[in-house]
Specification:
The protein has one domain. With 249 residues, the protein is mainly alpha-helical. It is globular, with a radius of gyration of 19 Å.
């Protein structure tokens, strides 16, 4: 297990040293703060409070989970697998005394660490921005924010596993990113025309955090969604590793 922890650390550091990682982190923090300031000025000018401070973090979370963070997930998965395969740096990793499964798992885990970090930054930026809006955040509102941002991790983690699976079919990060984005748009768009099909798509549950707020859904239904996402993660992780293991790196 020590080799797995060491490789997770190495993979996390590799992502840390990339300029695009810091760019995404800065944007994740700047977007909610900038949006909060602009919205506060707009609402003060028209004299109408369209979005309250308690609603703002949830509004931003919906934006991040549907648009912004999936893009990071696709880029991270493509860089860690297709990108390293294309520039032949993956061979260096495989020469270490560590199994291919641990290499695959450590890359996936490091991507999960960054998803958690981005959600944390998005939450901090959203909560800070809420002070510019009317109403303030109560203790119960802050608790809802913590629950929602924590729950948002699972569907994004499942999306990252699917993105890693797709990356196994490409030898360049640009190709993997392009196809991942196009498939994501196609699946999300098809939900407008075939809503019954979207029920069986993991991307339909990127707003899973809303199910944890209030009494919008029973515990039994939350559990069924959890089991579906878990099943998807196991399936795509297994097939993704199989493809990774059979490749000639």
């Amino acid at each position: 297990m020590h080799s797995l922890y060491a490789n997770v650390w190495n993979e996390t550091l590799k992502m840390t040293f990339k300029k695009k990682t810091w760019f995404f982190m800065a944007i994740t923090l700047i977007i909610p703060i900038g949006a909060g300031i602009l919205l506060a000025n707009f609402q003060s000018n028209i004299g109408i409070s369209a979005v309250s401070s308690s609603d703002f973090p949830m509004t931003m979370l919906g934006l991040f989970t549907v648009l912004f963070l999936p893009l990071f997930v696709f880029m991270g998965a493509a860089d860690q697998f297709s990108g390293e395969l294309g520039d032949r740096t993956l061979k260096i990793v495989l020469t270490r005394p560590i199994s291919r499964f641990k290499v695959f798992a450590s890359k996936q885990l490091s991507l999960g660490i960054y998803i958690a970090a981005y959600l944390l930054l998005a939450m901090i930026g959203s909560v800070v921005s809420a002070v510019f809006l009317r109403g303030g955040l109560s203790e119960f509102a802050i608790l809802d924010v913590l629950i929602a941002y924590g729950a948002a991790f699972l569907p994004l983690a499942v999306l990252s596993i699917i993105a890693v699976f797709l990356a196994q079919f490409f030898t360049s990060s640009s190709g993997a990113i392009t196809v991942s984005i196009l498939l994501y748009i196609a699946v999300k768009g098809s939900s407008f025309f075939f809503p019954q099909v979207s029920t069986y798509s993991p991307t339909a549950y990127l707003n899973w955090h809303t199910l944890w707020l209030g009494n919008t859904m029973g515990n039994g239904q939350v559990w069924s969604v959890f089991m579906f996402l878990l099943a998807c993660s196991i399936l795509f992780f297994t097939v993704g590793f199989y493809l990774f293991d059979k490749k000639e790196h």
